[in-house]
Amino acid sequence: MKWVYRAFGVSRVIFANELVDPAGLRWVDEERSADPGFEFVCFVDSVEVVAQMEASLRQVGAAPVDVLVEVGRTAGRAGARSVAEATAVARAAAASPLLRLVGVGGYEGVLVNDPSPHSISVVNEFLHRMRELTIALHREGLFETDEILLTAGGSCFFDQVAEVFGGPWPGMSVTTVLRSGCYVTHDDGFYRWMSPFSRGEAANGSLRPALKLWARVTSMPEPGLALLTAGKRDLSFDAWPPEPQLVRGVDGEIRELTDCAIRAVNDQHAFLTLPAGHGLAVGDWVMLGLSYPCTAFDKWQLIPVVRGETVVDFVRTYF
Question: Over the stretch 148-189, which tens digit does the pLDDT of each residue have?
Fold first, then answer.
């Protein structure tokens, strides 16, 4: 993905992952040499990663790379599991002649799976731990920059990130970067449920789902079941299933489709369960709301943009 960003002229890239392979680090070095305005930063989450990055950079003869200490949580994704481990990583990075420690990173979005009060408290604890680590590393004089970078914030808890990271930073200059993906499309499922706009903040506005998929009814082989012409190659299904919303009859009339659900998806078909008296017929079109936009974008290289019922543009994707 970082190659795509550069092809479009993006000059500041946070690679929210560890980068240890020599080929990738050589590319970073070549890009910076060709464009002195290009800024690149990636994560380190262990002393071993620091050592591997240093060895790879030395192998390719690259200049030092900016890094963030990644904070994680037990049973979570990548990231140092404790403040002590994160501090050891920071010290190793700061001591390396080929790495430059410029901040702290993390991702709270994978820590919990619901917006319950307990989950909110888990996220808050994690974010405060990131904040406290940043202050401690600054006091130890480990950061090699005057402008410390602090980044987190997926699409579910960005409000908490802004609150915790946005407070006063006495004696420090800190830039906070939110890494939220669903500002582009939002969704009709998981993120709609998890969003701060669904947790009592709707008065401040809300995001609207932008991705819709129309699929045709091609078979009704038994009562209560319709097969639609969209499957795993067409729609996202790994988080929540698509949400049936509207039906367009063969006569062109559009009406709401209620009390039904997609119960399964295979390569080419979606299995739509229907209540008695649904009025659906072979040849009708069903509009599906999609959950989890990330895995919808990677299936469509060209997405039509509509205004009303008219296609007015196309969006090219690069997943």
Answer: 999 998 889 999 999 999 989 999 999 999 998 877 778 898
Owning domain of residue 262: 212-316
By three-state DSSP, how is residue 86 classified?
helix
Is the CB of residue 88 less than 8 Å from the CB of residue 62?
no
Whether 190 is in a domain gets the answer no
Asked whether residue 235 falls in the same domain as residue 119, the answer is no
- The secondary structure of residue 123, as a DSSP letter, is H
Report if pTM > 0.70: yes
Kindly state whether residues 35 and 175 are assigned to the same domain.
yes
**Pairing outcome for strands 212-222 and 225-228:** antiparallel
Q: State the DSSP code for 266.
A: -
Between CA 306 and CA 212 the distance in angstroms is: 10
- List, in order, residues 6 or more apart from 264 with CB less than 8 Å away: 270, 271
Q: How many folded domains does the chain comprise?
A: 2
